[in-house]
Amino acid sequence: MSITRRDFFKIGGLAALGATAGGLAHAQARPAPARIRPAIRWRGSVSTVQADPALHLLRRASFGPTRAELARVRRMGVDAWLDEQLAPENIDDSELETRIARRYETLSMSPADLQALDDFPRIRRELGGATMERAVYSQRQLFQVMVDYWSNHFSVYWGDGPVRIFKTIEDGQVMRAHAMTTFRQILGADAHSPAMLVYLDNARSSVKAPNENYAREIMELHTLGVDGGYTEQDVKELARILTGWGVDRRTGDFRFYPNRHDWGEKTFLELTFPAGRGQEEGEEALDILARHESTSRYVAHRLCMRFVADEPPAGVVDAAARAFRQTSGDIRAVLRVILTHDDFYASVGQKLRRPFDLIGAAVRTLEIPNARGVTLARALMLMDQPLFGWPTPDGYPDDASAWLNANALLARWNIGLALAEGRDPGAQIPWDRFWAELGNDATAEETLDFFIDLVLHQAIESDDRAQLLAYLTHDGAGFDIDDPEHARRVPELVALLLDSSYFQWR
Amino acid sequence: MNLTRRNFLKLSSLTALAGVIDRPAWAPRMAFRPLSGGPAGDILICIFLRGAMDGLNTVIPHAEARYHDLRPTIHIPDPDQANGAIDLDGFFGLHPALEPLKEIFVEGDLAFVHASGSPDPSRSHFDAQEFMERGVPGDKTISSGWLARHLASMTTQNDSPFRAVGMGNILQTSLHGPISALALKSIADFHLNGNEQEIVRVQQTLQALYAGDAWLDQEGRQVFQAFDFLEAADPSQYQPQHGAEYGDDLFGQGLKQIAQIIRADMGLEVACIDLGGWDTHAEEGAVEGAMAALLQELAAGLEAFYTDLQDDMNRITLVAMSEFGRRVQENASLGTDHGHGNVMFLMGGGVNGGRVYGEWPGLEEENLDRGDLAITTDYRTVLSEIVQKRLLNDQLSEVFPTYQQAPFLGLVQDRAQTWPYRQFWPRID
Is A209 part of a structural domain of the chain? Predict the structure, then answer.
């Protein structure tokens, strides 16, 4: 429901009359808003997130802390946890993967099967559902974060024609197969993936009519970066080099078409590509791009934007770029440098959770068992981050200013309310377990602190705590956990915690 | 069109002089906005056509033989042929899908500036859009948007949360910066949803939790202010007038909501709205097809907006732009690749319409910019003229700090002169 202004004033008026209601009086005394923000503030993220290495690492390198995982990191130490997460192949995820394979059959289908199925809504539902469930329940948390990272680094738009079939294939064969291999491997896998070849039109590029779309974006968005030192002529030449890289219409697999390829001589990045070479010159171009110095800096910078800050400090970017060059783009080595760097640990609270991060973190921290990814993916649509739904090849933005505005904040609040009130049938909070943990005699303060710990894992400012306590006790009128009338305030309390600024940052 | 703009101007000056303006009884607007609020000049609607619209197939240089030669498949036929371009001035013609705009053009409220755009040579969508929206092509050190700087450099007392509105969930870059702009997807959905018994208290508690000074608190405060404004002004009560029909598409619905905000008089100064999907590398189509469908959507939205707000057109300027144009020569995928020069749209009561402006560079090989339409008018010349003459902001060096101003093209009337009573007649609403 939308609350009417009249209701709002009625309660406000009552609260103002009862002079003891500190919280509401505070709301009444809302200061005149400063319309013009201090220049320094609008990009700077001043957040209330507490510094705590274990918590920080979990906020960034996973889809959000849970009580159990936080206890585990504290027990084993941040370094050991990172070691573990950097070797996902040694983490047993078979229970989850078995469940997902059973639940979402389209994930293992071939392009021909998917084509024959002729049910695009189902294909998307299942890919989205699996993605959400893996993000929430996988033990390989850093791996899942990296899958999300690469899915945006090499972003394709699901709705673009045959991408609707090929995205499912690409998710398995590119993103999940190579999330933690080397940059050259994932770049190469992506360049051979029908999803990308179709999305950026290379599949239709030929010697008679080279299409520059993919050639441009591979340099601008995947490797060198827009200021990485290539020219418009390089775009044209790379487009020629990549002519013939296409998709077999019959099987839906990659195929090199010699008759569409431009066999002439090219000059790419000041290097001569002699005439008479086929697919191998495309591979060579990828080699050159993957080991280019600009690529090391560009990829390091993008990764640091994801893990450290919207405008990451030069120190960690340089260190990551150096690691990239020294290891020929070993993704694990670069991640290790970033996630152990001083700049990383100094960046607490500087990244805003994108909607995907937010939903993942909420379901995880509320210890919701067996959530249905399909309904979680629907919540993402309401927050304008539908999975694989970003139309342009730059992927979803990863800076707070893109996501932080009044409309988006309201959408977050409403999703928090919907989750807490159990309005998502696929994500039910285990209240019985929480009631049992709390016991029958929990006071308002004990109840409040229990849920602050459950949702935020940190102490909050005393003013904020007082506001929440005022809510829970209806301004001191009392709170009896055994009284159903009172207990129904608890879901709203959880919503307020999810909706608070503490929960928006990672 | 039952009321021409000129008649209207006459009429409205009379009402202004007489101090009589119909006011619905419900309107407690004074409680929310001081007299001095609202824009000093026009309300600006800024449309961004994302993906690089093919301006050569939008406002077509049909008299250029080279146009037809370089686009054997996707050219629009000459005006004298079936499904041909709609002639504007003997040289340029409208794409047939823009037919609804012809009347506005003839009426004098619509103009085009051809061979215009951002001078930066980048053919990257993302760079070019960023540069254009920040108003500083080629300069990556200035991250605020040109509209944000315009608003920040105005000295109005307008503290409405609806002063600057970006339709959609992600705020346009042009509105990023030292002002608060509201991203708005849907007026109807702009409220908290929750347990009815608790929601009032939940909202109050949330408001208290967001009472601080941090960035997020400021955004939160904006939500609550917007709640108040929407509650008081109830823009959704304004249904389209004069038989205007908005489409169900996002663009049409966005314009409809902008119109509602304007009519509810909520202090709007600048609204941004996007229409994307113009990246027609393949199967662009000609008279029909992918691009024609987009043009139709664009024209339908503009026509509905113009019809709906015809009584307000003398205080509205609308400008539409795209990050760059497309290559003159069609490609073998029956589309066009990234180009350079493009066409801009201007609509409003203050626009000296009925003309296609700009120096036409020609399409001969030697006149092209690396195969693309050259730019003879920097888009900032167009915007600067609007900012100065219609938005009444003289501080162009604040708005476009890196731009060496060129002479104005005479695209719009100077509002300070067409509205001489402004200083003596503070807005009655």
Answer: yes
Last residue of a domain, one of A291, A325, A356: A291
Tell which of A291, A314, A329 closes a domain. A291
Confidence grade of residue B155 (pLDDT, cut at 50, 70, 90) = confident
A residues 214-233 near B, CB within 8 Å? 216, 220-221, 226, 232
Rounded Cα distance, A108 and A100, in Å: 10
- Asked if A417 reaches chain B (Cβ–Cβ under 8 Å), the answer is yes
Asked, for residue A319, whether it belongs to a domain, the answer is: no
Angle between helices A94-103 and A120-137 (to 10 degrees): 160
* Radius of gyration for chain B, computed over Cα atoms and rounded to the nearest angstrom: 22
Distances (CA, A) of A11 to A99, A148, A254: 49, 44, 65
A22 near B CB under 8 A: no
Q: Is residue A26 within 8 Å of A46, Cβ to Cβ?
A: no
pLDDT in tens, A166-225: 999 999 999 999 999 999 999 999 999 999 999 999 999 999 989 899 999 999 999 999
Q: How far apart are CA B406 and CA A21, in angstroms?
A: 61
- Please report, for residues A3, A16, A30, A35, A501, the alpha-carbon distance to residue A413 in angstroms, rounded to integers and kept in the order given: 15, 26, 20, 23, 10
Minimum Cα–Cα distance from A220: chain B residue: B124
What residues of B are in contact with residue A2 (Cβ under 8 Å)?
191-193
Q: What does the pLDDT look like over A27-50, one tens digit per residue? A: 222 223 222 332 323 333 445 677
**Dihedrals φ, ψ of A352, to 5°?**
-85, 140
**Looking at this protein, which amino acid is placed at residue B209?**
L
Q: B429 and chain A: CB distance < 8 Å anywhere?
A: no
Quick one: pLDDT at residue B346?
98
Contact B143 A206 (CB under 8 A): no
Q: Find residue A65's DSSP bridge partners.
A: none
Quick check: B226 contacting A, CB < 8 Å? Answer: yes
* Closest approach of A485 to chain B, Cα-based (Å): 10
Domain containing residue A156: 53-58+66-291
Pick the residue of A35, A415, A497, A502 with the most B CBs within 10 A to test the interface with B by mutation: A35
Q: Considering CB atoms only, which of B171, B201, B211 is closest to A471?
A: B201
Domain count for chain A: 2
Q: How far apart are CA A351 and CA A59, in angstroms?
A: 10
Q: Which residues contact B69 (CB under 8 A, 6 or more apart)?
A: none
Determine, yes or no, domain membership for A6.
Answer: no
Query: Which residues 26-65 of A have a C-beta within 8 angstroms of B?
Result: 26-27, 30, 32-37, 39, 41-48
Q: Is A413 on the interface with B (CB under 8 A)?
A: yes
Judge: A8–B200 Cβ closer than 8 Å, yes or no: yes
Contacts of B166 in chain A (CB under 8 A): 405
Q: Predicted ipTM?
A: 0.86
Give the pLDDT band (50/70/90) at residue B37. Answer: low
The top-level CATH class assigned to B31-187+248-256+267-418 is alpha beta
Residue B182 pLDDT class (50, 70, 90 cuts): confident
- Residue B81: phi and psi, rounded to 5, are -105, 165
Does the beta-carbon distance from B276 to A406 stay under 8 Å? no
Collect contacts of A446-453 with beta carbons under 8 A, ≥24 apart. A447/A472, A447/A479, A447/A481, A447/A490, A447/A493, A448/A472, A448/A493, A451/A490, A451/A493, A451/A494, A451/A497, A452/A497, A453/A67
Pairing of strands B342-348, B110-117: antiparallel
Strands B43-50 and B316-322: parallel
Assess whether pLDDT exceeds 60 at residue B287: yes
Instruction: Looking at the complex, report in whole angstroms how far the Cα of residue A403 sits from the nearest Cα belonging to chain B.
Output: 6
A485 touches B at CB < 8 Å: no
Q: Does B221 touch chain A (CB under 8 A)?
A: yes
